[in-house]
Amino acid sequence: MAMMTVEIIPMKQKIFAFRCDDGQCIPYDIVCNKNPDCSDESDEQHCNINECRNIRMNQCEHRCIDTLTSFRCECNSGFQLMSDRRACRGEEISSHCDARFSVYS
Q1: Residue 61 gets which letter from DSSP?
Q2: How far, in Å, CA of 56 to CA of 69, rounded?
Q3: Which UniProt keywords apply (predicted)?
Q4: Which domains does the chain have, with CATH numbers?
Q5: Burial class (CB in 10 A: 0-12, 13-18, 19+), 36
C-alpha cells in the first residue's frame, strides 16, 4: 500500500463573508471601502444607510440590526424569527408574578 502525502497549506480564514449579488463571495472587511470588489459592484451599493432608523423601511417586529449594506431583524428572548425574516412568533413571558413568589410589604 503506497503512502499518500498531503500538503497542508495554511490559509488566513475570514470569519465573515459577503455574498455579492452575482454569487461571488468576498471578505466582509472590504465591503463599503469605496473600491468595488464584486464584479457587479454590489459591495459598494447601499453603503452608509441606516435602514433601522425608519420602521417603514425595515419592518422588523422587534429589533433591527444595521449592517454595512443592509439590515437584519432579530427577536426578543423567547421568540423566533418567522420565514419572512421580519415577524417574530413565540410566547411572551408573562408580566404577572406567580403568587408563590409574591413579596408583600
Answers
A1: S
A2: 17
A3: Disulfide bond, EGF-like domain, Lipoprotein, Membrane, Receptor, Repeat, Transmembrane, Transmembrane helix
A4: 16-45 (4.10.400.10), 46-90 (2.10.25.10)
A5: middle
For the segment 4-24, the average pLDDT, to the nearest whole number, is 65
Task: Report which of 61, 63, 24 is spatially closest to residue 40, judged by C-alpha positions.
Answer: 24
pLDDT digits (tens, 9 = 90+) for 29-84: 999 999 999 999 999 998 989 999 998 989 999 999 998 888 999 999 999 999 99
Q: Report whether pLDDT(105) > 60.
A: no
Lookup: cell for 3: 503512502
In order of 28, 40, 97, the CA distances from 64 in angstroms are 20, 27, 30
